[in-house]
Amino acid sequence: MSEADPLDIQATFDAQLATALAWRTSTAQQRLRRIRRLRDAMMAQREAFYAAFAQDYRKPPAEVEASEFLPVMDEIRHALGRLKRWMKPRTVWPTTTMLGTRASVQYQPRGRVLIVAPWNYPLSLCFGPLVSALAAGNTAIIKPSEMTPAVSALMGRIIASVFPANEVALFEGSQPTSRVLLELPFDHIFFTGSPAVGKLVMAAAARHLASVTLELGGKSPSIVDASANLKLAAETLMWGKFLNNGQTCVAPDHVYVHASVKDAFVDACRAVLQQRYGAGPAAQKASADLARVVNRRHTQRLASLLADAQQRGARLLAGGEVDEDQCYIAPTLLDRIPAGAAILSEEIFGPLLPIIGYTELDQVIAAINAAPKPLALYVWSTDRRAVGKVLEQTSSGGACVNHCVAHFAHGNLPFGGVNNSGMGSAHGEYGFKAFSHERAVLRASPLMLIKLFFPPYTGRRTGLMRTIVDALRLPML
Ligand SMILES: NC(=O)c1ccc[n+]([C@@H]2O[C@H](COP(=O)([O-])OP(=O)(O)OC[C@H]3O[C@@H](n4cnc5c(N)ncnc54)[C@H](O)[C@@H]3O)[C@@H](O)[C@H]2O)c1
């Protein structure tokens, strides 16, 4: 992979300053025009995207539609319909001591923003945040992943055809290019990727006190309890796990299943896999509906997680076939994984699903709370009290009940992690706000109460202040 020229990056960043200042006063119409041009150029390359995704990791066209175009188009549609409302300054009521003033929150573009994206949903995770950045009135520089070169190159051509570099630019490259970009004093950095690199990005941002949105990963747990609809659980979980061949930040990483329904759940999962991808190993390998692992290095990483678990005594319940040359790993279900196996501590990010039997929900909750806070948590149950208990006693970026992954596509929900799985939110209005500065504006009047707080501090004035402060003990109406 060739790296972007640092001088070119610096010149582009410098050139975006004047645009960013001019765009502070941009109207909703001007911003939407940019977004529409991006949409039209992207959709004009639909077939080219199919080919690029096939080349990079044999992603099926249906999954390109459902997990790349759909989220971006939904983001665009949302912005087209709502941007005017989002941009409107929000008037707020005066609090007691602010009587006599008027106040509002003004949404300002942050300025020049950097978007760094991972490889697993390269289009959705570059253009989705870009739509939010443009909606909020920012210029942007995008650094896609080096691991999906065909898609990255195509996105680069689209960006160059729609925007002059002083508005939006895309630089291909790997870590060296990323590092050059992270040296620059961007106003905001929107990073999607691993927690390990997220820490480096946050440290780099700290040098300029750039604000950050960190969309990270981790091990998202799932729970199937004894009351669950097992057919629904198997159908949804097998979809969320094997979509994009398990290479999804919010994929169920592992699943806790109540011991009383574990065998029936495994049978239901096997049936779903056979119905969707073929009855035997050869048919599944030939299935056009399974993407490949992104490259050989990641195939080897997953193969060693599998081998390590098996050597320690894990039992294979489905799949297990590995073909490194074709970056293929079959949809795999495992159980009886002993503590200490790497598959139980590393983010799997591939088509391997550990199934862990349990008898006490409290123990599952304790195990979840003992690990870093995950990006997502899923529970399949028809017992409302059990669902309430899981949602109340755990923390995660997002959660689904009787489903998985789908909350990503809900434009009215904030999408993001918590601590180790990230900070800040994306999508819809939350994405617009991530790329906006919420500026507090207070307008004074000659009759405002706070004038009573000015010196000279006579005895009467001090007494009045005491009365006002004491009055704050009264409950709010
Ligand atoms: N929360 C989300 O929305 C979300 C979405 C997709 C993926 N992810 C997470 O992303 C990870 C997988 O993606 P990945 O392997 O591309 O992540 P990654 O962190 O290795 O890379 C992400 C981006 O950072 C760049 N990068 C890598 N190392 C760097 C370094 N040392 N300095 C500067 N830049 C560097 C890469 O070139 C790439 O563009 C998983 O952890 C997954 O859970 C999160």
UniProtKB/TrEMBL annotation:
GO terms for biological process: aldehyde metabolic process. GO terms for cellular component: cytoplasm. It comes from Pseudoduganella aquatica. InterPro entries: Ald_DH/histidinol_DH, Ald_DH_C, Ald_DH_CS_CYS, Ald_DH_CS_GLU, Ald_DH_N, Aldehyde_DH_dom, Aldehyde_DH_NAD(P). One of its GO terms (molecular function) is aldehyde dehydrogenase (NAD+) activity. Gene3D superfamilies: Aldehyde Dehydrogenase, Chain A, domain 1, Aldehyde Dehydrogenase, Chain A, domain 2. The active site is at residues 215, 249. This is Aldehyde dehydrogenase. Keywords: NAD, Oxidoreductase.
